[in-house]
Write a structure and sequence with these properties.
4% of the residues lie in helices and 30% in strands. It is built from 1 helix and 13 strands, in the order βββββββββββββα. The longest helix has 10 residues, at 228-237.
């Protein structure tokens, strides 16, 4: 299966088809994870997709009460889609189609809820008691902190594990939480019961191992555009 189908000029020609696997495509410009792309991240060891929903962590016992982030063992659930957007803590260009170099700081915005992938040192994950990872900054899980509009706790840094200098769709990567220097992680062991039975705990830990490796899979991939003017022209043609 090809990864990107050129669907004509303008905006449609800048976006790959929905729910295509991360394979080498006919057009190399679709082989990049770019700003504005909406993707599903799969945990390399288990295949579980990074997922969120309006099921909240408890507000007692060291948890935040914010929307929970879990691992989901299905490819087709829309609540596993995340949009790549600019970091909160830096004024940095992240125009649609911009390739993402290794080391870049960015945010992941949950496509269904509008919340951002978030972490914080003051709350523990419910099962493993590692650092909690939540989704916050949307109506169902508002950010009540002083930096609600641009919370640096939403920022993650891309760590590449292969030799490429850009985030490629077939690369295994790690995501490091900028404020706490901890890695997005799934232990492979901690499983929730009701009301989200079978979903896996996602947390953040202070070491980098194979349980912290992720790979971009299904999604809507914006074709690589190195200059914002070119990306803007694609929108204008629509």
């Amino acid at each position: 299966v090809g990864m990107g189908v050129n669907m004509g000029s303008g905006l449609l020609g800048a976006v790959a088809a929905l729910f295509i696997p991360a394979t080498v495509g006919q057009d190399p410009a679709f082989n990049y994870v770019t700003c504005g792309s909406s993707i599903k991240l799969a945990h390399v060891k288990t295949g579980y997709r990074l997922h969120s929903h309006e099921v909240k962590y408890g507000s007692n016992g060291g948890s935040s009460g914010q929307n929970s982030v879990t691992g989901m063992n299905t490819q087709i659930d829309a609540n596993s889609m995340w949009k790549v957007v600019a970091a909160a803590s830096e004024v940095e260009d992240c125009h649609s189609g911009k390739p993402i170099p290794c080391g870049t700081k960015f945010r992941l915005k949950h496509s269904a809820s509008g919340c951002y992938l978030h972490s914080h040192s003051q709350f523990q994950s419910p099962l493993s008691k590692n650092q909690e990872v939540s989704a916050v900054g949307c109506p169902s899980s508002p950010n009540l902190g002083p930096d609600a509009e641009r919370d640096p706790g939403d920022d993650w840094q891309l760590e590449c594990t292969y030799s490429s200098d850009m985030w490629m769709r077939d690369d295994q990567v790690r995501l490091k939480h900028v404020l706490t220097n901890k890695y997005l992680h799934h232990t492979g062991q901690h499983v929730y019961q009701r009301p989200i039975e079978g979903q896996r705990e996602i947390c953040a830990v202070d070491y980098a191992d194979d349980n912290g490796k992720w790979i971009a899979q299904e999604g809507v991939y914006v074709k690589r555009k190195d200059h914002p003017r070119a990306a803007a022209a694609a929108h204008e043609e629509l």
